[in-house]
Amino acid sequence: MAILASLPHEILHAIFSGVKITDLASLRLTCHAFHELISGNRILFKDVYLQILDEPPRVKKNGEDWAWEIELQRLVKLERIIGFDTVDAKKPHVQFVRDVVGSYTETADARNSKNIALISKFFRDPRDQVAFLYQSRIWARARQAVVPITPTPPFEDGQASAQLHCLYGVPVPRHMGFIRHLPYARSIVYDLRNHSDASLWGPYRDDPVLTVDWEKMEAIMMILAHSLRLFTDRTKGRFKPVWNVPFKGVSPDSFVPISLKRYQQPAPPVDARDPYNISGTWFRVVCFLDYQELFRYNFADDDPGPGVPRPPLDTTEAVRLITMELHVTDIEEPGADDDQGMPVVSFKGKSKAMHTTFDPDATSFVRGTVRTTKKGDVRWTTFSVYVGETRWSSEGVQVGGVRSSRGVLGFWSDIRRNREGPAGPTAFWKVSNEFSEELSKDHHLHLHQHQHQHYLHHQHHHHHHNHAHHGHNETGAESNGDEHSEEQD
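Predicted structure:
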């Protein structure tokens, strides 16, 4: 030890920067010389950190300071929690795990991330998936249906777990009972009490600062992921799987554009003032219930009361895939309720259903804004315009932050914001900085046509019994059977 301690500090630094974090603490206690060398050695802690994790973008670009030693201590604590043997031992730490994992996704390298590789490894064990990803009220209610004494998690624990599940982003394996949990996700998404002015008709809590409600986001993700998986299964792989790699695309700048074959229009010029990278081609998925079923679910029985969820909803929703071509139209200063360091960017464009066989030219127009909330969430607001009339709106949050490739999860609703609906889940994500009609043709799908026509029949029938809901068709079509637009925002 005396020989080692006598080595020049440069050599000791090189040796110590390659040891395990926990060994640094042991080395510090070994002798006075090592204690002096290690304690407060920011350069050493930085070098150890960068052996394991990505250099945070703010440090790399702006030279900002970083609490290297504290972050290493948090990593040690995270590894210790992950190492616990049982789910019950892990669960109480879900908020801490959310905080650390969230910081790793926020600071991940956009292309080849050590952060993402590390947390992906942590969540390979099914015990960690159960302990941290499946502890929201959705999962608790499903367990209570089987074992009534199952406790409901504290609200913030449920929010933390739901956020981790959204960041993880992969549909739960079938063997873990995912299908049994879907009705409880639907009971959140299709409960019209969850769509109101208080939450801006989006996936937010009922508060004035637009706090994201991660259990709503989780429910949206579960329903849409299930529908996308069905599309993949039924097309025998022609529709490629999405959301199938843990933690993929949940960091800022993770979007990587593809080049569209035979693109008909040149790539739009990059507006350096648009930090959100809006202009280009986006894919969108939308789910919705038959309106009569939605109405019965919400109004046929007595209201369960404030804070009491509606019963599980075991049904099958219709699903639509849409392409959107968007371009920036204006960039303005942030409003009073926005992050003052980020602008408000307006856009407009067109949308087209990808699997409309009876009217392949059916399109609608879309406009909206992107802004950053005071809490740092990227908020998307969109409006669908049908024959000159704004018909649908949506509110969503971009998972992973600015320019993430995971995209936006949110709710769509009628522009009139009627308490009787309709409303449902939607998601969209960017695929290219270019514009191309070929994109729709290459992915043309002929699915759910019978279900779609069946839905129109019910809407037409309902029109004759309830004129007040004429035109409330989530695909953008009139209730009289005029299926002219598949877009609803």
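Summary: Confidence is low (pLDDT under 50) at residues 439-489.
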